[in-house]
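PROTEIN DESIGN WORKSHEET
SECTION A - STRUCTURE
LENGTH: 337
TOKENS:
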């Protein structure tokens, strides 16, 4: 596999290096790149597949989405728009690349942002506001939108506070609710994934319990709960919050990261799209996000202040010894340009 350029996002003040761009090769490890300051808490980032534009959240009480261009080794501001709620934490793009979606965690809403002909944010066209709560008084005292995930032309929205997964249609920049799925009370749905080979299945990891659910789309456009399992080791009894969920590039495994237990659970994918029981591997401390590059898994350890590379074989992670320092790394994405 050739070396891959990657972006790493973190929590940082404008005076600190909030974004790191570097390269990774499975043979030689990480090559240090450029660190960028001038950003406020760029805890999630996303690059447009066509335009040379990098989007970052500004995870603050005000909440904003920023657009950047790389010029002469610097990130140059190219646009900024209010996200419509506090603590934006997740971004995604529509399949046609014309719309940017943003999850506002403390705002309890999801924003739809129109992009102009250069891929820059032009206007926020809609805001889907949630107003429920869940049984966990400390974490579910209000709606907490954590994820905006494109799925079959829809937008899947995880609401950790309400224990619900909403599916919206983007109708000319306006959200139109298609259906909503009710998760187990107190589970806190966090992030979604889908599999190219099982287009009718939607996979969700719940932050508060570590549960993984598989939902099957029916002919009427509704969803049935196909499978539910816990992805933590049976012997673990401490505090934990599940984080990221991703399929391997070959589609044979689904990986989930856990903070507290500090490991990654890997589930083999069966022929019908359901999952085998988890294979557990310890990893860095506070693995909020990870990136899969072939048989390599790059895990961002927020508490360790580094990204560490592992190889994945038969569902188990093996530490390669390759690592790179990064300030509170919480997001890692492939660079497209």
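SECTION B - SEQUENCE
RESIDUE ASSIGNMENT:
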């Amino acid at each position: 596999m050739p070396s891959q350029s990657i972006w790493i996002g973190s929590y940082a003040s404008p005076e600190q290096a909030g974004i790191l761009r570097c390269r990774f090769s499975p043979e030689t490890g990480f090559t240090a790149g450029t660190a960028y300051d001038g950003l406020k808490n760029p805890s999630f980032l996303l690059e447009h597949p066509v335009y040379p534009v990098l989007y970052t959240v500004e995870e603050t009480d005000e909440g904003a989405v920023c657009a950047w261009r790389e010029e002469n080794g610097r990130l140059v501001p190219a646009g900024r728009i209010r996200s419509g709620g506090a603590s934006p934490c997740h971004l995604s793009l529509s399949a046609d690349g014309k719309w940017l979606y943003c999850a506002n965690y403390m705002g309890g809403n999801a924003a739809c942002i129109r992009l102009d002909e250069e891929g820059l944010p032009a206007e926020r066209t809609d805001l889907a506001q949630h107003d429920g709560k869940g049984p966990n008084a400390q974490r579910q005292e209000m709606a907490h939108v954590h994820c905006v995930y494109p799925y079959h032309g829809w937008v899947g929205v995880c609401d950790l506070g309400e224990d619900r997964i909403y599916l919206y249609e983007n109708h000319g920049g306006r959200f139109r609710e298609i259906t909503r799925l009710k998760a187990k009370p107190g589970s806190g749905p966090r992030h979604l994934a889908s599999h190219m080979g099982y287009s009718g299945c939607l996979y969700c990891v719940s932050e508060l319990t570590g549960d993984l659910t598989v939902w099957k789309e029916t002919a009427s456009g509704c969803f049935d709960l196909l499978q539910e399992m816990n992805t933590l080791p049976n012997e673990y009894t401490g505090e934990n919050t599940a984080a990221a969920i991703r399929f391997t590039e070959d589609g044979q495994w689904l990986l989930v990261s856990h903070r507290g237990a500090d490991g990654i659970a890997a589930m083999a994918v069966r022929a019908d799209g359901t999952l085998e029981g988890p294979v557990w591997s310890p990893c860095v401390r506070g693995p909020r996000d990870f990136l899969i590059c072939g048989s390599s898994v790059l895990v961002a350890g927020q508490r360790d202040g580094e990204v560490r590379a592992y190889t994945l074989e038969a569902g188990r992670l093996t530490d390669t010894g390759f690592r790179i320092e990064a300030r509170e790394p919480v997001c890692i994405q492939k660079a497209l340009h």
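SECTION C - NOTES
The chain has one domain: 4-243.
The domain at 4-243 is CATH 2.130.10.10 (Methylamine Dehydrogenase; Chain H).
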